[in-house]
Amino acid sequence: MHSIQEDMAELRRQLEKGSIQKAYGALLSYMMGLRTHLENVYGDSAISGLYQGYMDMTYFALFPPALKRRDLKVAIVFNYDAFRFEAWLAARNRKVQRQYWELFKDSQWNEYRVVAPTRGIDSIVECDLASDFDLSNPDALTLRIETTTAAFVDDMERFLSQHQPPDPRV
């Protein structure tokens, strides 16, 4: 295990090369542009601000009305560990998260990854949007993410309309 001092020295060496800053800047710029694009698609009241994160995830949330009524949202996430864009069904709080996780788990639904709630896990259901992507072609990537996100939202809404959802306010 490296000491924090060794990790800081390695970070400094990597930053001196300049590639990390350029790539990180390009990724954040893309996420801001994607957020703006989806804001135009979904409306500004249905989208959150951009959370830059700690190089673990960068995300913003969509609040489609049928999900928002259930205290749910869809997070559009860049997952640094997996190095891919993902859509996450997420909840307002841990209690709501657990209720919906149980609903998905009990239905044995396997169209997407159903994620067990544990410390540090914010998603209930996850969908890969793009793992092999090219930021030099942002329009194609945005179309891919928008199309896959729309299908994911539709699937979540359809699933929830067909199953007795828990009342998150109980």
Fraction of residues in β-strands: 15-25%
What's the number of helices? 5
| Radius of gyration over all CA atoms, rounded | 18 Å
Q: What shape does the CA trace take?
A: globular
* Global structural class: alpha+beta
Intertermini distance: 45 Å
Number of β-strand runs: 5
Indicate the multimeric state.
Answer: single chain
Q: State the helicity in percent bands.
A: 40-55%
Structure overview:
The structure is a single chain. This protein has one domain. The protein has a 5-stranded antiparallel beta sheet. With 170 residues, it is an alpha+beta fold. The termini are far apart. It is globular, with a radius of gyration of 18 Å. The protein has 5 helices and 5 strands; from the N terminus they run ααβαββαββα.
Secondary structure elements and pairings:
Layout: H1 4-17, H2 19-42, E1 57-62, H3 65-68, E2 72-79, E3 84-91, H4 94-106, E4 113-114, E5 123-130, H5 138-162
Antiparallel strand pairs: 1-2, 2-3, 3-5, 4-5
What features would you highlight for this structure?
170 residues, alpha+beta, 5-stranded antiparallel sheet, 5 helices, globular
How do you describe this structure in short?
The chain has 170 residues and is of the alpha+beta class. It has helices at 4-17, 19-42, 65-68, 94-106, 138-162, and strands spanning 57-62, 72-79, 84-91, 113-114, 123-130. 47% of the residues lie in helices and 19% in strands.
